[in-house]
Amino acid sequence: MMKLLTLNTHSLREENGAQKLEWLVEGILKERPDIIALQEVNQTASAELAEGFLQEGRYLFPTKVPLRQDNYGAQVVRHLRQAGIECFWAWLPIKLGYGQFDEGVVLLSLGRKITAAETVPISIADAYDNWRTRAVLGIRVEGWSDWFYSVHMGWWDDGEDPFLKQWEKLNGHLEKQCGDGAVWLMGDFNAPDIFLGQSYTHIRAAGWYDTHWKAAKKESDFTVTGEIDGWRDRLPDGKIQGMRLDYIFCSQRKDILSSRILFNGTNGPRVSDHFGVLIEVKEDGK
Q1: pLDDT digits over 141-195, tens only?
Q2: If you write DSSP's letter for every residue of 102-128 in order, what string do you get?
Q3: Which domain range does residue 231 map to?
Q4: Closest Cα partner for 38 from 72, 67, 80?
Q5: Considering its fold, how many domains does the chain have in total?
Q6: Is residue 243 in a domain?
């Protein structure tokens, strides 16, 4: 069985962040996902450079942004390694967020070394100091032919950098990536399935399987409730009663045993303004 987890962490923007990081690590230790995709993984751009031990298990690829001491992904990995979990990871810095954070996405592999990684720019914007700049991180791991991606998309109604343009660029790239293995898209798509004809509809029309709806067992649906960044002005009353923004999509039809919503105050304490999505997949031939 394979377990996959995705979570938009909100990381250094969260109040009581140190406690929430501990809760996140406790949840990971309890569930032991094989692959973890995290979004909004921040570090303070002015923080001290990371010490050597924070680099352990990191897959390096060219980037001008150095790893810093308070990098949220590095801190998660540090806690996992201290708990005796062999953890391999990659962090892609994408843009300067809120004028003070290097913001990016992370993929973690528990127990399997990362054998390949790639970055896919998807936005029209490409300047590091432009908050609209977006890119996707993908990895392959030892012993599996699948590709796993950590995704954080823009909004359908963004007049300058709309979701559809980003999606067409990403999907076009991934069509070339599909081989014998599956492709897994994990993350915050800013694509509520309640808005017909918009982002979610285009993803499904492109042939991607929504693993939550394919699951034999599933818990809850919402991955956000209340007010969150980026959505306050996109609904009539400025509030979200509950929507799905976070998904795990697959390029192939798979036997999804379960799909659960974590870190929502019921299945674990809330650690972010988003909840996590955890799926269990029956491995082929087993």
Answers
A1: 999 999 999 999 999 999 999 999 999 999 999 987 766 789 999 999 999 998 8
A2: EEEEEEEEESS-EEEEEEEE-SS---T
A3: 2-281
A4: 72
A5: 1
A6: yes
